[in-house]
Amino acid sequence: MATAPIEPPQRLVSSLSGDPESPVRRWLTALPTLVQQQLAAWELTLERVHAPGGRSSLVALVRQQDGTPAALKFPVPGRVSAHERAALEVWDGWGAVRLLRSDDTSGALLLERLRSGESLRSLPEAKAVLEAAGTVRRLWVEPPPGHPFETLAGGTEEAVEGLRTAGAVARSAGQLVEQAVELRRGLPAGSEERFLLHGAFRQGKVLAGARAPWLAVGPSPVVGERAYDLAALVLDRSEDLLAGSGAAAVARRRVAKLADSLEVDRDRLRDWTLYRAVDTGVREVAVGDRQRGEQLLEFAAWL
User: Fold this and answer.
1) pLDDT of the residue at 1
2) What is the β-pairing status of strands 57-63 and 69-75?
């Protein structure tokens, strides 16, 4: 068992509220103890905490009692983390990382070990898009009866309010924000599709594995139409388009190509892509990443 102090990665620390009385900050303070307790409860040996890691969880690389490698994940508490476990249970390793164990009290997830340093972003773009499309297609399954997942329609007002709040910081994007708000209000009612979606799918969320070449991780699951999931993939590597010529035409071709390859309506994919580009763009501006945010807003304007 590990006895060395456990330090949450700086990226995680920086992404959470600085208010020492906030629930997430109290969770962060208790996190080293939670990790040690879970290691003992599940008889795991700590190799190291994965760094730089993500902004919404701590992941520790561990060994199980029989020596099998695994990953111990502690998501930031909340609805999304609880639903991540439920989605992984539904997929049961089909297109996604396999959930080995979970703990209701701590929120810990024990996952099969993937090669965290090798995502689809390490591949040439054409190959990466092909592999990503094959992976996300496996995740689109019918949600089980009585599922806990939010629907795109059910989350409309919360999404619109969040977009308006973040958009107030990016004042120059006002027209795009209003267009995105209108789309977000109307799009869910225009489709009868009810698939379980990854919700945050992109090339960086697909890692190399031993059981399968590529497996998805880190879902923010939601139920709705496939175009919503695919929109995030359209936005992948948008910064690369800025370096080339004819970027607007290339962006529109990307929408058409992905829509056709996965039998998704082109117009709906374009609209969801515009919405997600604006939504993510203004949020990036709001948290201080103006360069990334403005890239996404420019992408939205091309559509």
Assistant:
1) 43
2) antiparallel
Long-range contact list for 78-81, CB < 8 A, 24+ apart? 79/150, 80/56, 80/220, 81/56, 81/57, 81/107
Domains of the chain, start order: 10-112 (3.30.200.20), 117-302 (3.90.1200.10)
Comparing C-alpha atoms, which of 280, 279, 278, 272 is closest to residue 255? 272
List pLDDT tens digits, range 169-219. 877 788 999 999 999 999 999 999 999 999 999 999 999 999 999 999 999
The amino acid present at 118, given as its one-letter code, is E
Closest CA to 86 of 113, 59, 106, 104: 104
Q: Quick count: other Cβ atoms within 10 Å of Cβ 120?
A: 24
Q: Residues, the chain, total?
A: 303
Amino acid at 213: P
Question: CB–CB of 106/37 below 8 Å?
Answer: yes
For residues 275 and 285, what is the distance between their CA atoms, to the nearest angstrom?
16
Q: Is the pLDDT of residue 277 over 90?
A: yes
Q: Which residue has the tokens 């090669």?
A: 115
Torsion of CA 128, 130, 131, 135, to 10 degrees: 130
pLDDT digits (tens, 9 = 90+) for 212-250: 999 999 999 999 999 999 999 999 988 877 776 788 898
pTM across the whole model: 0.92
Reduced to 3 states (helix: H, G, I; strand: E, B; else coil), residue 63 is strand
